[in-house]
Amino acid sequence: MPNQTNLLFPKSFLWGAATSAYQIEGEHLSHGKTLSVVEKNMNKNYADPSVASGHYQHWEKDIELMKELGLKAYRFSISWPRILPDGRGKVNQQGIDFYRGIINKLRENQIEPIVTIYHFDLPQCLQEEYGGWSSRKVINDFEAYCEILFTHFQDVKYWLTINEQSNMFQLPYLMEFDPSIPLEKQKYEMNHIMTLAHAKAIHLCRAMLPEAKIGPALGVIPNYPATSKPEDILAAKHADDLRTYLFMDLYMKGTYKPFVWNYLVEKGIEPTIEADDMECIQTATSDFIGINYYQSQVVKYVPPGVEKKELKMNYDGDNDDTQYDNVPGIFEGVVNPYTAKTRWDWDIDPIGFRYLLNEIYDRYQVPIMITENGIGTLDELTENKQIHDQERIDFLRDHLLQMHAAIKDGVEVWGYIPWSFIDLLSTSSGFRKRYGFVYIDRNDTDIKTLERLKKDSFYWYQKVIASHGRSLFL
Ligand code: BG6
């Protein structure tokens, strides 16, 4: 039983920060690497992935900064097309050496590597060859890729299988779909295939690295009802089922939620399930759930006949032009009048974080690792090269306090790995939307010096880590 009085963060708590390969590395078509699907499809109005944060050149300096920040853990992803330029087969030794160097230097600095196997970057060649995630062929290729990682990086103790499987089917730039197949049908087929790939990775990890801890990282947006009308309460529950618990129940219980399955069957969009699929999924138990939390959402009930609305995101951060999507007959997103918004219209809701952590822990009783949490801001460089990102400090402090409250509530949280360590290429909005503790001197159109500069939030987080969270309460 957790001690309810005066609880601070557990002793072994992993204070960290996160990034992903295509968002920081650059050199996306050199040193043996080939194109990935997300790099091809990311928002063309902003910077491209050819330089990103220049991490491929500056990784040693970046790890020195991690050390200075006091990080206990660093979450990063390995790029599949950097390891396997053809998607499978011949291994790119330069890619192995690059990540080997990073892991060694992290270890030398007592920083625990937390490795994401797949962060949106399917090799484009596999998309072209057999339609990527729409074909079961990808499962073997993914497993072979995992085997290479588990062979070369046996000293990694924490693995994340797939980043944000839930978002992969919501956002327009993370996947490619075949226009000749009805979109919804295709999405649920792909989701099933991706779940099998996740399960195979877990089975393989158990066989090859029995000491390692492995789990998924899921992007979760809890849904609140717009009013206390029973229809709206049910709409929020159904939105959670379709947008979160479909994925989480598959990962954690190895089953399709009955409400979701019946919905899919009614629409004629249920995935094809082959003989051993569900057993493979059910027996792939995760050690923990990785949660990426940025915001909550409000929904209301809408009747079956309403017009279908797609999500339209605010990409430029200049005006509130988000259009929430709907599922006719089930729910529609609406504005929450009680929460502040970021420039990109994302709801700022620290209490939602505590609510969500309790909700997930109640359902699955599995430890949770916060694998992303953060705020995209504009961040200006002053004349004397300072960055006063008070908005980020406020956001992170408020979320950390609510996370601490959740721990006091009894939720087991292994670590806090906010997004992001350095400024990086936001997939939706380029370099304009910054997330890091470390400022990278570049913008969307000018590569500038790529100098690394510590923001105010860097010094703030440094104190949080050094005091093991006590500074949050001063
Ligand atoms: C998460 C992703 O969805 O959100 C990250 O795992 C991403 O890759 C982050 O950068 C923030 O989203 P965005 O669109 O602002 O970059």
How would you describe this protein?
The protein is α/β, with parallel strands linked by helices and 474 residues long. The protein has a single domain, classed as Alpha-Beta Barrel (TIM Barrel), CATH 3.20.20.80. 38% of the residues lie in helices and 14% in strands. The protein is built from 15 helices and 16 strands. The chain has helices spanning 21-24, 37-41, 55-69, 80-83, 93-108, 124-130, 137-152, 165-168, 183-208, 230-252, 258-267, 277-282, 350-364, 390-409, 456-466; strands at 14-18, 73-77, 112-118, 158-163, 213-219, 223-225, 289-292, 297-300, 326-327, 331-334, 340-341, 347-348, 368-372, 413-416, 438-440, 452-454. Strands 1-2-3-4-5-7-13-14 form an eight-stranded parallel barrel, surrounded by four helices. Helix 3 runs parallel beside helix 5, helix 7 (137-152) packs parallel to helix 9 and helix 13 packs parallel to helix 14 (390-409). The two termini are 27 Å apart. It binds 6-O-phosphono-beta-D-glucopyranose. 6-O-phosphono-beta-D-glucopyranose is lined by residues 20, 23, 163-164, 167, 219, 292, 372, 376, 419, 426-429, 433.
SSE topology sketch:
Elements: E1 14-18, H1 21-24, H2 37-41, H3 55-69, E2 73-77, H4 80-83, H5 93-108, E3 112-118, H6 124-130, H7 137-152, E4 158-163, H8 165-168, H9 183-208, E5 213-219, E6 223-225, H10 230-252, H11 258-267, H12 277-282, E7 289-292, E8 297-300, E9 326-327, E10 331-334, E11 340-341, E12 347-348, H13 350-364, E13 368-372, H14 390-409, E14 413-416, E15 438-440, E16 452-454, H15 456-466
Parallel strand pairs: 1-2, 1-14, 2-3, 3-4, 4-5, 5-7, 6-8, 7-13, 13-14
Antiparallel strand pairs: 8-10, 9-10, 11-12, 15-16
The structure holds 6-O-phosphono-beta-D-glucopyranose.
6-O-phosphono-beta-D-glucopyranose binds near residues 20, 23, 292, 372 and 427.
